[in-house]
Structures are given as structure tokens and as C-alpha cells.
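Researcher: Good morning. I'm working through a list of sequences from a screen, and I'd like to move beyond sequence-only analysis. For each chain I'm collecting a predicted structure so we can compare shapes side by side. This is the next one on the list. No need for commentary yet; just the structure.
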Amino acid sequence: MLFTNATNTLKFNPNSKKYGGRTFYFTIVVKEKNSDSVKYSFYATVRVTGNSTEDAEEAYDIGKAKATQVNYTIVNVDEKGKGSLRFTSPIHMKWLEENFHEFFKIYWRDTQYRKTKENLELLDFKPTNFSSDAMTVEFEIKFAKPYKLGLLVKKSDRLHIDVNMTKEKYEGEYGLWLGDPETYELGTT
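Model: Good morning. C-alpha cells for this chain:
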């Protein structure tokens, strides 16, 4: 990745043909130099031209079929408690909306976790938008003590969204995947 100051542009130069035909999603965060709370997030998509090659696929053998690994990340949480969760591939959003609180276990850890080993509960975690792109879930969080949100935004504390449901329960004819469950594997747990 190169940044050209004169034109204010980012340029991506893949170092291998194996990245051809792939799409990458990321967030650029512009932060005020002397502040941990003043920042702006810009979402970007980079599509690499060319054709995908067999050895470049993020897939691996499961018996005779190949499975695509799907991950998810917390994209951001702002100072108002609004954030988003993004999957790397489209999923069955209607199923996730119906099963959200059974599928995920949501908690946070403060800076004392190394000593206490305690997972802390949020006052409220509410999904607000299951996006039509089939990859993004927007949410709002509330803490019992509102100042804790500032510590989360400053990256002192950490929000965790873990899979709580067994694989057998979220796979199946009407489950998390858009298509044959044998062709997908959840990478982030």
C-alpha cells in the first residue's frame, strides 16, 4: 500500500497474481493527534482486477468439498455507543436477526481482566439494523456506568462478541449460510 501525499491517494499493488479477483473491505480511521475520542471512520472496498486462481482461494478441503471460511469483526464503536459488526462474506441475515442473542455471547472486559478473569455484562446490547448487504449488523450498547463507554472507545476496555451456538444448530437448511452449509466454515468464534 502506498500513500501519495501530493494527490492524497492510496494505491494498492498486489505482489502476487493470487490476489486477482478478490475484494477486500477495511476501515480507514482518521484521528485527531491529541485526542482519543475525536476520530472519523471511512469504509473502503478494494477490488483487485484479474481472475481468481485455484491456489488463492481461502478454502480448504473438508472431505471432497471445499469450504469458504467466513469471519466477522467489530468494525467500530463510537462515543455514543453505536457500532457495527461485519462478516467477510454474505450470510443469511433474516436467520441471524431471528437468532441473534442465542447465536452470540456478548460481554466486555476491563483493564483488570488479567487479575480478575471476569467477563462483565453490558446493561444493554441491541442490534439496530441487519443490513441489506447481508454482511453488516449495526448495534447500540449501553453500560450501567456510562463513562465505561469512553474507556471502550479509547481502546482500554474490550468488547467481545463470541459465537455461543453449536455448529449443528446454526448450520442446516434454514441457518446462517446462504447456500450449501458444507461449503462454508465459520472462522471467527
